């Protein structure tokens, strides 16, 4: 894989939109299949409670090298035949600075299972994508992915300079640590630690040391990685322009994107590392242009989010394809909706949180906790809060009321978008700005297409 430069890299989209099947499909087409690693512990717990259709998760966990941990997870969450329709899912514990042993086992097993499934039956590379902002699970999630032999790790929504050392420590069976920022006067950081040998009772057998690709948006960020990390820490870059789906980098002037946000690709090329460009690049013409400026290819998201193998719930996928085909689909770059404070792309689709009346009538409750941040309480202890939770509770925790305005619960919304949300939670759909590919791939508004169709179109 050292000099393996596919022209198409799958974006690690949403929560389980880039699922194991889609990632595997892209990999078998000799491209880079990327899994979304976001909240996999919750995704897998809910798949198991739905009866594990097809038995895929259980098949993967039957190969987990520490069977007692896999058995503990199955005992806690697997429901034969699945829970009754409209029943509530059993809650997964919140992540904190001291996660429960069950949550650690679940997180390691979930990431292992999805990477194992994506790699099952072939030797082509598989990547997994995480968000720096969701930092509590990193040391456990990456452990699970590496146990399954993941080939690459990409990460954005922040500047994750700690990841190369995390990878190296897991690979070397050292204690792993990750420093998380704390909002406070006396406490500004907290270091989470994990000793896999102590937790599992023996050294890990790691098949390979995965390559690390930061997701960046500017020449400045590229230089930060080059200047602050030892040579060889990063394999290359994924460069996302502002029209990409999901979280975007904030504009340099903090108001709107302008000249300062334009990437100078000739300067990127001079760094001597492979790079791929994403953000409205899903066309043969844009692929050709990316190659002409020195990129190895493109990262494509929306075109695969809307294909048949995607993890997006089929009802939403079909409606979005219909709207996009008829030029009726709008996507807004929402500067407020994400509790991360990063801009976030929201597709305007009926019956989702993009509609004001649905957003305003949702009970603001933090029931997943993935995007909680840490703060220092008046008594000097650690507390947790999220600007998408109840305004009153957030203020009681020392937060500012203005920080809650326009915030939405991405955790529940994105879980619903992939079909494993609570029955009373509405989805939120994130996509990029460009849908011109739909008329190239669909004959009419009711048509559909495969990931292979999309790849053939892009490399035509």
What does this structure look like?
Helix 1 packs parallel to helix 5 and helix 4 packs across helix 5. The mean pLDDT is 95. 48% of the residues are buried. The strands form 3 sheets. The chain has an 8-stranded parallel beta sheet. A hairpin with a 5-residue loop joins strand 13 and strand 14. With 460 residues, the protein is an alpha/beta fold.
Summarize the entry for a quick read:
By secondary structure, this protein is an alpha/beta fold.
Low-confidence runs: none
The gyration radius over C-alpha positions equals: 21 Å
Strand ordering within the main sheet: 1-10-9-8-7-4-3-2
Structural class: alpha/beta
Total helical segments: 18
Largest sheet: 8 strands, parallel
| Percent of sequence in beta strands | 5-15%
Percent in helix? 25-40%
Distance between the termini: 24 Å
Tell me the overall shape: globular
Number of E strands: 14
